[in-house]
Amino acid sequence: MSLGASESSGEGTNIKRAASPIRHILARSSSSAPCYSSPSATKKTLLDEKPIKKLPLTGPDMNQLKKSDDTTKPTTPSKPASSLGSSTIEDLFKTAKRKSHFNNTSSSNLTTASASDSRPGLKRSHSAISSLDAANEPWLNTPITTKHQKIDKKEVYDRLTPGIADMDSAQVLMSKTQPTSCLEIAGSESYQEQVAKACGIYPNKRILCYETAPPPSSKVDVNKNTQTRLNTSTSASAKRHILTSPEKILDAPYMADDYYLNVLDWSCSNVVAVGLGKSVYLWSADNGTIQALDYDLDETVASLSYSADGTYLAVGTSSGDTQIWDVQKNKKLRSMRGQDCRIGVLSWDKHIISSGGRDGSIFNHDVRMANHVVKQLHGHVDEVCGLKWRWDGEMLASGGNDNTVNIWDIRSTVPKFTKRTHVSAVKALAWCPWSRNLLATGGGRDDKKIHFWNTVTGTRANTIHAGSQVTSLHWSQHYKEIVSTHGLPHNQVTVWGYPTLNKIIDIPAHETRILHSAMSPDGQVIATAAADENLKFWRIFDANGKIPLASESARLTEKKVVQLRRNKSIR
């Protein structure tokens, strides 16, 4: 219900609550026993002076008020109605109307105040008053003064505009320690670290995590039990396939069956030279062409050796001459005579060609000089059948039919080491290309052993019992292996691992003993010649793109240094 011109439903509710105490007062007054005025007078005064139809009450409240007035029967005279003054029921309703504008809190306070003001009339015991006799009471003549409370209107705040009024409360709330919920704890970083640590998972062990490793812990690593291990295929590398059949076979007639000769060599120009009787033939491995040297002497070819650049070929004769040939021009450049015996072995080092004689002597010839013999070495008492310069030119190894191995320093004419471990002639000699102080030597028919020597200390490093006459040795340039050729009784080619000394493969090569062998310039193919008059080529060390163990550039650099030292020492 509404009051006056108010349109708010809330205000109407407040007015109803404000008028409620007045109705309670009238109801309580009508139930009082004594009455000091007549009913007619009281009713007339109320109706004439303040007609009830003008009251802003309608509906059941107005009917209840009329019923209360009609049934009131006062027995005692009351004071004149004129004394009521301004404290009439209408004034009370006007007061309630003013109070109806207050909020719900003010309405509650007004209800409490109105109820407290009516207590004096209810507590009077010396006289009985009716509901209409309240006009003569002095407490009603005093105008009701209501303490107007300042109504705080509800302020409207914008969430985007900070309010100064809320700053104090916000600071208080922020200063207080707020209890952290379980969800907040679970989402924090420390909680995650604790969980990871409990599970044995450490973030710094992840892939691409560039952090220092944590200190070792004595706790059990749970991650080791839960992590799926990848079974990486660690299968042994496939064994290198070595063909047991030769790639090529050439006919070599008139091959002398002599263990002490060396009539086969392979140049860096990929040309194979072979001495057959009183002739020398050149076979190109590139195009297969064959060329014969204009060797016009009636002397047997005893030894052959190519220079380092493959341009010159040294030929040792049975009469003791050492000839130098230009293979490209097929022309003999010079003939140098030193020993008065067969030259069974030759070895080059730059411009020095060393010849080993049947008398056990070794002559060093400088091909640039007229007086070509620059040094003589005497360390054997029988024919020299093995001779090999180390690739750096600092040391020379020689083997003879006296079962002796001599290791020579270029600066001295006395052997640095003399080894008599073999019990047969020593023809097979080989310097290791990737270990400069390692020398391999092979014994003859009665020895059948391969010894490995440390040329710094002179000690024997290892020994292989080959089981056959050792005729030649060659180190691999790409693998830590060595190949040996053999005579009686097996006539085979054998590949050995080093330093494991395990036998990798045995290849039956010839029907008779292998007399000579040579390695290709790329270090992959071995050529063997035997008394069965066959020249065979075996692919033993297939490089498959492997880089040589000894770098060629390092060799050349070291050779230059050695050459400078040697030039100073010789001259």
What does this structure look like?
- By secondary structure, this protein is α+β, with helices and mostly antiparallel strands.
- It has 2 domains: about 10-140, no CATH class; about 250-570, Methylamine Dehydrogenase, Chain H (7 Propeller), CATH 2.130.10.
- About 20% of the residues lie in helices and about 30% in strands.
- The strands form 7 sheets. The chain has a 4-stranded antiparallel sheet, with no helix packed on it.
- Helix 1 packs antiparallel against helix 4 (about 90-100).
- The radius of gyration is 65 Å and the shape is elongated.
- The chain starts with 8 loop residues before the first helix and ends with a helix.
- Mean pLDDT is about 75; it is low at about 1-60, about 65-85, about 100-135, about 180-185 and about 220-235.
- It comes from Rhizopus delemar.
- Pfam families: WD40_CDC20-Fz (PF24807).
- Belongs to the WD repeat CDC20/Fizzy family.
Secondary structure layout:
Blueprint (H helix, E strand, L loop, with lengths): L8 H22 L8 H11 L10 H11 L18 H11 L4 H14 L1 H5 L14 H4 L25 H9 L6 H6 L1 H11 L22 H5 L21 E4 L12 E3 L4 E6 L2 E6 L5 E3 L8 E6 L5 E6 L3 E6 L4 E7 L5 E7 L2 E6 L3 E6 L6 E6 L5 E6 L5 E6 L4 E5 L5 E5 L6 E6 L6 E6 L5 E6 L5 E6 L4 E6 L5 E6 L5 E6 L5 E6 L5 E6 L5 E6 L3 E6 L12 H19 L1
Antiparallel strand pairs: 1-28, 2-3, 3-4, 4-5, 6-7, 7-8, 8-9, 10-11, 11-12, 12-13, 14-15, 15-16, 16-17, 18-19, 19-20, 20-21, 22-23, 23-24, 24-25, 26-27, 27-28
Helix pairs in contact: 1-3, 1-4, 1-5
